[in-house]
Every structure is written in structure tokens, then in C-alpha cells.
Input
Amino acid sequence: MKASREYGRGATSADRGSHRFLLTKRTQGTRTAARFAIGRGATVRKLALVLAGALALTIAASSGASAAAPIVNQHTSFTQTFPDQVCGIQGTSTLSVVDNFKLFADGTFLDTSTFRDVFTAENGKSVVGFAAGQVSGPANPIQNADGTITFITTFKGLPEKLSIAGGPTLSRDAGTVTLADTFLPLPNGDLQFVSETVSGEHGPHPDLDSGFVLFCDVLIPALT
Output
């Protein structure tokens, strides 16, 4: 088990740390982009929609529902192809996603997801990003005294596998890890990434351990 460590604004930018370990919606049409895996961005955004009604649902569910029965159970499955940019390289991505999100009456959630993202550069070279596993934790973020909020999430499975299409593996993160992600809520409802603390790490996590630098270090040579 590795000691906990923290990435802040200077070490892990919102375009690195907060855009890995995630399944996050971005507005270019109805684009959904996946980078470094399963659940964090999906969890943050789903909770923004779900938590407003979760208390009422919990009260209603507590009277007769089984403790194991989810009060929210969402399933998403889709495939999309869209113009994309990876590590400054222009191309096209084809993304396939299956996501199952459950919120329980005890205030915890379980998000089980898989995705496969095939990125093809303009020169015809392709790489594949794949992830499969679960993320879980308390649904409600911690309210910090400085106005920020912190989400605690634990990942199990294969957060990231990068490979050349039809070829060898370039990088593979697998196992378990717990992340404490702190955000500053903005007036427009967005969340600004502040810092990330990593703990409970088991298994190889080379991209995570590199501060998400390895991602482009292995993909750029494969795409150029």
C-alpha cells in the first residue's frame, strides 16, 4: 500500500487529473468523452442532478424498501463518433460506453462502467483507450470550511488501458485506489478542480503515479 499523496493546482491541472479517471459530458453536439476511466466525472455530474431529490427519495424509501435496493438506478449505453483531439493531435474518436449508476438510501452510490475509445489521427494511426470497473463512495460531498467540496471515491478494476489498435499495450492501470477530489463550486453551477489526494493504492497505476503525464508520453509517439 502506498502512502497518500496530493496533487494540487500546480501539479494536476483540470485538463489532466480531472479529465482522467472519468466519464464526463462535454458540449460539442452531445459529445461524451472518456479519459482515464470509470465514473468520477459521471458521478459528479449525475449527483448534481440526483442529490436534489435524493433526500425525498430516501425518506420515501426508508419506510418499506429493502436496505439493498437502490433508490436511483440509471442505465446508459451508446456509441458515438466525433471529431476529437488527443494530446494536441487532431483526429476522430469512436466511443462506446455502458454505464450503470445506483444510488442507495444509506447515502452511498455504485457506478459500474465500461468504455472503449478508438482514436484515429489524421495520418491514419489509431490507439485504443479501454476501461472497466466500479467506483463507489458516499453520494454527498464533504462541505469544507473554505467553501470547497470534496468527493471521496474508490475505484476497483481497470481504470485505464492504452494500446495501439491491433497492437501492443502502451500503458495499463489496474487494481484499486481511493481519490479525494476537491472542487470549488462556481456561480454558474460548474465545479472548478482544486486538488486531488490519492490513497489506498494497490496494483500498477503508472499513469496515475506519473501525475497523468504518461498518458501523452505514450500516445504521442504511437500517433505520429
